[in-house]
Write a structure and sequence with these properties.
This protein is an alpha+beta fold. It has five helices and 13 strands. The longest helix has 14 residues.
Length: 217
């Protein structure tokens, strides 16, 4: 892939940690993590252990460019926020997103949290949990897949948040996933415009380029 057409924001020569089995058979792909430093970890399902010898046997390093040549599905994650993971669903050819839990390094976690809080410019906390309709936590690799956008922002009476996408029919039950607020806002920046909503308020819009309207509360 040429530098002119490079789809990711990370340097194509930056090193990534990758399961050795994926170099032999990319179909073993299970999940990826983009850590808080913007570094990629690409796995066949195995995670790091405390045994460094096992880690050396299980994982190696590749330039990101080579990893993308090997696993072109990574390009669909060009907009993935740092601090997120994406599980690969081979049947649906889609990535299923989640916010990464804390690491085993408590001191490092405290520093990362402090930096995220300091950089946050919106109401509330970037670490707050947000419920999103399931399709908002997915990224399809199908170019014909409908664009993802938030149709409704609900601030529940208890102060919790719910984001609903346009693919969800009105007045029907739907599945939800949990993301951290910062990740939800990075994926769907328009949501930031209504983060001042009070408990009990609901904002809606007719289309992805329409303004938000207060419809309840």
């Amino acid at each position: 892939m040429s530098s002119e057409n490079w789809p990711l924001r990370q340097d194509p020569e930056s090193p990534v940690i990758i399961s050795r089995s994926l170099v032999e058979d990319p179909s073993n792909l299970a999940f990826v993590v983009l850590d808080d430093d913007g570094d990629w970890f690409i796995s066949d399902g195995n995670e790091f252990s405390e045994d460094m010898e096992l880690n050396r046997d299980a994982f190696g390093s590749l330039p990101l460019r080579d990893a993308v040549d090997l696993i072109p599905e990574l390009t669909a994650l060009a907009g993935l926020p740092t601090g997120m993971a994406a599980d690969w669903d081979p049947e649906r050819r889609a990535w299923l997103l989640s916010s990464v839990a804390d690491s085993d390094d408590d001191d490092e976690d405290l520093l990362v949290r402090a930096a995220r809080l300091a950089a946050w410019t919106h109401p509330g906390s970037p670490l707050e949990e947000v419920q999103v309709s399931a399709e908002l936590a997915e990224i399809s690799t199908d170019p014909a897949a409908p664009a993802r956008a938030v149709r409704q922002v609900v601030r529940e009476a208890d102060g919790t948040w719910l984001l609903v996408g346009f693919q969800v029919p009105e007045n029907e039950d739907f599945e939800v996933e949990a993301l951290e607020m910062e990740h939800a806002v990075t994926l769907y920046p328009d949501v930031a415009l209504v983060l001042s909503a009070a408990p009990g308020q609901v904002y809606d819009r007719a289309s992805a380029d329409a303004p938000w309207e207060l419809v309840e509360g």
